């Protein structure tokens, strides 16, 4: 149980009531609230949607989805409907609806399949497929099945499950073969397939996690869907493989790349936290002509880097022990 005063302190920190709470401290408060998974925490997080930072708000939506508490749905629906919100925030709200997986969300997700923003449209498509899959025979069986070690390593609710063969978690010897990785890569890159199927290949490659799987994933950065590319960078943030650093740096440093993709690349680099990534994160955090989302993501990434390189056992204001952002961020 978290005492009322602690909750109040977390709320003040998340909402920056004093006016001088650094963004990374607000993120830490958010992840502490997420780990509580209570109704009170949901209501505090919802209050944050009044903020002006798209980065913060997309993370609020992500956390509400991961908490999987249906009372967050009306607020998420409101964000999806609000076309004045940044598309990155609306995308995350739709994805969170997929994570909560209530059949009642399907009509509203369907209504936004024709949204002017491609990332929003594509997210709605994937979220609908995810909710339908969760209610399929395979999905229901999967929910009941005991989870093994790799499934526990990735505790996030993903936008799509891995391909059927890798559903149970730990890859078997024949999953690691060059030909299997190649097959998954072909699926990953096949733009004729529904995005949900391509995402299933993506999460299968994540669970395989070898350098060859990382290379296969990195080949997805040549896609023309910002949503698809940002999810690859997100997966790299979960995998934490130094092998992915060159491709992530290329994405972060590409001024022509979508902000959403660059943001996710920055946070993945912060989670990988090797000494060589720090100068690059510092440079982009203070680049005046870089988009706000990119600068703020680098600020969060540096906080993650420092956490990974410190002896801090208790992340997030010392309230509750939660994993680093690299493992749980959106
Ligand atoms: Fe996202
Ligand atoms: Fe994100």
Automatic annotation (TrEMBL):
A GO cellular component entry from the record: cytoplasm
HEAT repeats: 72-112
PROSITE patterns named in the record: HEAT_REPEAT
Xref: SUPFAM superfamilies: ARM repeat
Biological pathway: Protein modification; eIF5A hypusination
Reaction equation(s) it catalyzes: [eIF5A protein]-deoxyhypusine + AH2 + O2 = [eIF5A protein]-hypusine + A + H2O
Keywords associated with the record: Cytoplasm, Hypusine biosynthesis, Iron, Metal-binding, Monooxygenase, Nucleus, Oxidoreductase, Repeat
Cofactor(s) needed for function: Fe(2+)
Positions bound to Fe cation 2: 230-231, 263-264
Positions annotated to bind Fe cation 1: 58-59, 91-92
Family per similarity comment: Belongs to the deoxyhypusine hydroxylase family.
Name this protein carries in UniProt: Deoxyhypusine hydroxylase
């Amino acid at each position: 149980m978290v005492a009322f005063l602690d909750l109040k302190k977390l709320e003040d920190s998340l909402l920056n009531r004093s006016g001088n709470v650094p963004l990374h401290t607000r993120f830490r408060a958010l992840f502490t609230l997420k780990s509580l998974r209570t109704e009170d925490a949901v209501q505090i997080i919802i209050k944050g949607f009044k903020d002006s930072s798209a980065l913060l708000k997309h993370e609020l939506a992500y956390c509400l989805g991961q908490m999987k508490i249906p009372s967050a749905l009306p607020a998420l629906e409101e964000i999806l409907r609000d076309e004045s919100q940044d598309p990155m925030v609306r995308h995350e709200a739709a994805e969170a609806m997929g994570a909560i997986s209530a059949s009642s969300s399907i009509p509203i997700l369907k209504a936004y399949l024709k949204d002017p923003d491609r990332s929003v449209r594509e997210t709605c498509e994937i979220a609908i497929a995810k909710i339908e899959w969760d209610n399929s025979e395979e999905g229901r069986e999967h929910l009941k099945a005991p989870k093994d070690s790799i499934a526990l390593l990735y505790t996030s609710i993903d936008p799509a499950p891995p391909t059927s063969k890798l559903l149970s978690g730990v890859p078997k010897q024949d999953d690691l073969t060059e030909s299997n990785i190649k097959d998954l890569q072909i699926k990953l890159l096949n733009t004729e397939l529904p995005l949900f199927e391509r995402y299933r290949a993506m999460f299968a490659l994540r669970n395989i996690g070898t350098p060859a799987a990382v290379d296969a994933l990195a080949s997805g950065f040549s896609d023309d869907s910002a949503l698809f590319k940002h999810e690859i960078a997100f997966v790299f943030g979960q995998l934490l493989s130094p092998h992915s650093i060159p491709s992530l740096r290329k994405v972060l440093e590409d001024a022509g790349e979508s902000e959403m993709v660059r943001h996710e690349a920055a946070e993945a680099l912060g989670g990988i936290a090797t000494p060589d990534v720090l100068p690059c994160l510092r440079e982009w955090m203070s680049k005046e002509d870089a988009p706000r989302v990119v600068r703020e993501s680098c600020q969060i990434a540096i906080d993650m880097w420092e956490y990974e390189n410190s002896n801090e056992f208790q992340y997030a204001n010392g309230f509750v022990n939660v994993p680093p952002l690299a493992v749980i961020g959106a």
